[in-house]
Amino acid sequence: MSVFSAQQRAQLFTKKRLQQQMRLPLHSFCIFRSFFQRKTINLERRGLCGAAMRLVQFHRHGDGGGIRVGVEQGEGPGVVDLKAFDPSMPSTMRELLELGDKGLECAQRALSSGQCVVERSDIRLLAPILAPEKVVCVGMNYHDHCLEQNAPIPKEPIIFSKFPSAIAGPYDDITLPPESQEVDWEVELAFVIGQKGKHIKEEDALSYVAGFTVANDVSARDWQMKRNGKQWLLGKTFDSFCPLGPALVTTDAVQDPHNLSIRCLVNGETVQSSNTDQMIFKTEVLVAWVSKFVTLSPGDVFLTGTPPGVGVFRKPPVFLKEGDVVECQIAQLGSIINKVV
Prior knowledge:
Structural class: alpha+beta
Low-confidence stretches: 13-44
Radius of gyration: 19 Å
Number of helices: 9
Distance between the termini: 10 Å
Order of helices and strands: HHEEEHHHEEEHEEEEEEHHEEEHEEE
Strand content: 25-35%
Number of strands: 18
């Protein structure tokens, strides 16, 4: 549970834009969309029904903890409650994606209607995906991150995983486990699979992607690099080690996922600052590669790697401590803020 009060969480939504150089607003990046001229996206590259939306999962205060799916109102003050608009619609994002175009077309109709709007102060945002079948992670996937550790550029994607139980909401706490003294930050671009597929071709891959979001691949470096036979899994998968959010931004709402500013701040100080154009293996390559080995399913989450600036490679190394606040930002997608407890 977050230490932020309901009032504080509401304030996070309305944080002033551009308080620092390229500092990004929390609740919505829709204002940025008016500044960018969209590229024409070929139909074969479109994600699902081609609708440009920001989808969220949330609890309504006083609603007994039930999960709802909503659509952000662009620059408006609220979120359209999809199930209130159409009671036949599911209550979770994963179930919505499993409906394919039918689910997203209903979400588009709900957004256009302007009905069934709930105020942001009345809700608590959750991770846009909960309990996915898979959380697929990619290591060493930024050129500049490889350079900071004097590591060779990988010839193939380095794949590992987190357990889905590691997922936390965009404003939830990161819990320091007593088993680790070396917990580190990693801002990452994440994407979510929208339809089932195996042996997917690169040229078709983006049509299998529902959208993009912001992730923090929180990492216990002692367990990743020194313990457990140097297998990464345990160091990556403590509870709360995968904050996601604030929204699932559908593929057609993102101008170019491989040319986005990406930053991480700890206690307001920039510790990572790069661009997703530094990614070695782009989204299409990752979808095609992983689908050689496993069947991808709606709701599967991919974390695509982190840029330089992580704590473990600083001199001396720096790790998170109780009371720190970590903010991960990606242009056009949004910002997540997580307090360390």
